[in-house]
Amino acid sequence: MTVELGHAALIMALCLAIIQAVVPMIGSFSGHTSWMRLGHSMAVGQFVFVALSFACLATAFVQDDFSVAYVANNSNTLLPLHFKLSAVWGAHEGSLLLWSLILSGWSTAVALCSGKLPLVLSARVLSVLGAISVGFALFLLFTSNPFDRVLPIPPLEGSDLNPLLQDFGLIVHPPMLYMGYVGFSVPFAFAIAALIGGQFDSAWARWSRPWINVAWVFLTIGISLGSWWAYYELGWGGWWFWDPVENASFMPWLAGTALMHSISASEKRGVFRSWTLLLAILTFSLSLLGTFLVRSGVLTSVHAFASDPERGIFILAFLGIVVGGSLLLFALRGPTMRSVTTYSGWSRETMLLINNVLLVSSMAMILIGTLYPLLADVLGMGKISVGPPYFNFFFVPLMSGLMVCLGFAGFTRWKNTEGRALLKKGVLPSIISLVLALVLPIFMMDKLTWSNYSLTAVITLLLVLWVVTMSLEDLWLKSRGKLSSLSSLSGSYWGMLIAHIGLAVCALGVGLSTAYDAQKDLRMVPGDTTELGGYQFQFVDVKRIEGPNFIAYRGNVEVRSGGEFVVSLSPEKRNYKSGGQVMTEADIDGQLHRDLYVSLGEPLGDQAWAIRFQVKPFVRCIWLGSLLIGLGGLLAAFDKRYRRRRLQKSVNSSSEGLAFE
Amino acid sequence: MNRIALFLPLALFVVLTVVLLLGLDKDPTELPSALVGEPFPVFSLPALHDANQMLDEQDLLGDVVLVNIWATWCFACRIEHAMLNQLEEQGVKVIGLNYKDNREAAIDWLKKRGDPYTFSIFDERGRLGIDLGVYGAPETYLLDAGGTIRHRRVGVVDDRVWNNEFRDLYAQLMDEKR
User: Fold this and answer.
1) What domains lie within chain B, and their CATH numbers?
2) Which one of A12, A71, A264, A590 has the lowest number of neighbouring Cβ atoms within 10 Å?
């Protein structure tokens, strides 16, 4: 019964979404206030029904209702409760339902927070969001219904959730990622509403900025959680693979980052208007494209979700309507007049332009690399792949260039910044960073030879220290060296500073863990000891243990440093009962300056095991840095001025939407 | 800005959509039939273990062989490796094509995981990979004694794939050779 209720609720949500998409839009043209207001209540109603539907599916999982095909394929009675709940979004159908839920959640947030917006604008924004909801609801109901039954004979036992996904990472990673992906539908809707209304003053930019920031924060956290999950769950110590699924989430992030920066110039100075609109469309389009790539199966991926050409056609058609339609609208109605304001030299506008060029080039490079196998195939050039070598070759120089420019971020002024003054401010930081970057790697060497001196580390440190010292110098000058004036700096400024330093910390982790990574794969018998990166690893024994839905071999490895006990690690080899899948669970001792990473390989007979030992210096900085980046975005999103300005704006703009018809 | 320029994103998107639409019909794991029945491409590349020893397509002749494309950066290859070791123990001749990789890392890899390859070709720049139309590592080609490609598998070869796609063909080719 619950299942049918869930299905019905989803259909109900679809109906409300249709009303939300159609009625307010018509109202916005005909001027019927009540029609325009309808979108707000429809958004809330839609959210309630999608949430009900989602709750019903969750109930089916908790009650082990294997008559539902989706439950039978992704759960089983032995699965612990929290994994039963997270299994709701463990595969295709459920993750789409989660997507719908989050979309209706964002719509509701817009409906509730739009009191200060002109009604015409909020009605159109909600109508666009409603149209996207309709697309996803249709997709769910027609090609991927999570409520389909296995009748007449339901299986007695489910086939279990993919063991890779039975992990805390899966509980939080997809919702975070989707919050980000879907969150970009809001600036997208704002951009479309602006295009429809033909209004490109700074108002639309200001209204959408906080939404962009919040969505971007979620995406940042989502991507870093995904990388962290791959690091400890895939069991062999990598943290980024340039896999199509990862690229699919990284591209909107890059475009979104470009959007965050260009929209500030559009808001403050009225420049880059068409570009900002285009970026808002692009960012959400890339989120949709990501869904297409992951769900349609045009590309092979290690993440191997269910793929199905029929679904592919549907998403492609949807993509065509949404993206093609908005780009057509952009082409027909986009602003063509040149910006009235000018900027020159090393102004902040110029720097933001460089930032955008670098970010969008990186995004395009990843898009080409991701689609290249497909493109080559379609063009009849055979099947060619590009691997991590291609991505690293382009991405590392582009990001290094970005970090060089980023150092100047705080110092630049709108309109014009004097180049010489800018260079002067760079003198001290560049000397400090150069000296430290050349000296510090010496302390990482166990023997003083040139071959031990890592060039990667020097370059990494140079870039990282440059960004950090420049940011601190700017902070020093802005606060005039007084602690008391720190509190008067705005939330946006702190946000920028922290996010930029976060990027530096992240780069530090990437560069140093690449430069000083040490690893060994060994055949070990209990009692054997090995030395790696200044640590002694002793393999004590392997025990057989029983988990809730798996049997495991648990190794015991004691780590000492200079004779002193550091930690005892227990990597596992798990054998899942239902699917017979074998999983490697690495054990990690993480500290800020290094991770000790031990994974248990295959038994080699005579009590011997293959074991992999890794020492990864500073690898944790990658995720610490991403958290700082996210924190920065959050601070900027809740800057006081958005709330203040909105109040002011509502007074003088409450009727401006209609004037442009 | 020129109105025409605003149409540019739309035009790009239309091209992209066409590519994606055409791509939908293609199964990424399916072999391109063009290569099957063709002789293995001509190449001249160094051996993995000895940079001075040059190998070419003649070295693949005379026996039914599997040519396996692998790399240390490819982690599906790790999964596949145990199966290749097994095949080698059963007497199947496997030749490695180390693809866009680092020589030391690759040699190290084989030391640790066992070396199922009779010899490994070192294709640092992916030249031979382009001629073969490699989609991604791992890939496995089955060649008859005359050096003609008889089957191609994109992705991991495991027990199931071996039994379904390779075993009978392999036995048949061995008979032909006799």
Assistant:
1) 30-177 (3.40.30.10)
2) A590
Please indicate whether, in this complex, the C-beta atoms of A336 and B78 are within 8 angstroms of each other.
Answer: no
The verdict on a CB contact (< 8 Å) between A387 and B13 is no
For residue range A571-630, list pLDDT tens digits in order: 988 887 766 667 778 899 988 889 999 988 777 778 888 888 999 999 999 999 999 999
Across all residues in chain A, what is the average pLDDT?
85
Contacts of B136 in chain A (CB under 8 A): 300, 373, 385, 387
A276 and A403 belong to one structural domain: yes
Same-domain pairing of A613 and A628: no
> Is residue A531 domain-resident?
yes
Q: What gap in Å lies between CA A399 and CA A612, rounded to an integer?
A: 32
Q: Looking at beta carbons, which residues of chain B come within 8 Å of A274? A: 1, 6
Same domain, A308 and A323: yes
| Pure H helices in A297-418 | 309-319, 325-333, 348-378, 388-406
ipTM of this predicted structure? 0.77
pTM score, two decimals? Answer: 0.80
For A614, phi then psi, to 5°, come to: -135, 140
Same domain, A404 and A453: yes
Contact state of A316 with B29 under an 8 Å Cβ cutoff: no
CA-wise closest residue to A463 among A543, A527, A396, A541: A396
Q: Which domain, by its residues, includes A471? A: 200-516+621-635
Residue A301 has pLDDT above 60, yes or no: no
Strands B65-70 vs B93-99: parallel, antiparallel or unpaired: parallel
Could you tell me if A469 and A552 lie in one domain?
Answer: no
